[in-house]
Design goal:
107 residues, mainly beta, UDP N-Acetylglucosamine Acyltransferase, domain 1, 5-stranded parallel β-sheet, 28% strand, Hexapep
Length: 107
């Protein structure tokens, strides 16, 4: 959680990881077993169901220097707008925006 921006009155379940460059608005609720990586923004009152997955790299590899091979991968941001719901086990691929009060079903 060190360095992450976390708004007031957030609830974070057990076994969650919030990366240092993640941003959570006020009143966000994240259920258990969910990781929120760098460049993920959850606006106010977003609900994230248990074991939801966020990605931040479209071309992940075990090892390669991104500075030397930028064509193979770059970090992409994801924005989840106010009041949206991400269902249990849903996978949110990086580079996308989920609209205000949208509902993403369980995965």
């Amino acid at each position: 959680l060190k360095g992450a921006k976390i708004g007031e009155n957030c609830t974070i379940g057990h076994n969650c990881f919030i990366s240092s460059k993640a941003k959570l608005g006020k009143g966000v609720k994240i259920e258990s077993n969910t990781d929120v990586w760098d460049f993920i923004t959850l606006k106010d009152f977003v609900f994230v169901g248990p074991s939801a997955v966020f990605t931040n790299d479209k071309n992940p590899r075990a090892k390669y220097p991104k500075k030397e091979y930028p064509q193979y991968g770059k970090w992409l941001s994801t924005l989840i707008k106010t009041g949206a719901t991400i269902g249990a086990n849903a996978t949110i691929v990086c580079g996308n925006t989920i609209g205000k009060w949208a509902m993403v079903g369980a995965g």
